[in-house]
Design the sequence.
């Protein structure tokens, strides 16, 4: 198995993502080589990278695109996107009409199937 594929599999193992600063240690490769591989995986649209902080140091959180798609699916009730995605309202979920309506829509969808 090639190093690119091993790296992708290692990232996929971490369902909530893995810090790049930990990935190269886990893979037992040097950080520069890891960075080159990650750049290639991003270019190939297999991995996404977000700025992050780990142990007070800036790094990147890496996630496989497959996991990202799965988590987007969790935000959908049929074709209706969760109102929480991108919401900037003062959040009180137990009092939120938008969230209640979305959950009701989700329940209705399950009743129909
Ligand atoms: S629960 Fe309501 S207020 Fe809170 S994030 Fe979701 S939509 Fe926004």
Sequence:
């Amino acid at each position: 198995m090639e190093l690119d594929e091993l790296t992708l599999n290692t990232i996929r193992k971490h369902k909530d993502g893995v810090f790049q600063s930990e990935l190269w240690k886990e893979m037992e490769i040097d950080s520069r080589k890891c960075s080159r591989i990650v750049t290639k995986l991003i270019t190939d649209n297999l991995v996404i990278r977000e700025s992050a902080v780990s142990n007070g140091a800036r790094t990147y959180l890496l996630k496989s695109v497959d996991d990202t798609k799965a988590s987007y699916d969790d935000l959908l009730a049929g074709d209706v996107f969760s109102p929480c995605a991108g919401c900037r309202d003062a959040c009180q979920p137990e009092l939120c009409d938008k969230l209640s309506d979305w959950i009701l829509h989700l329940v209705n969808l399950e009743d129909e199937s």
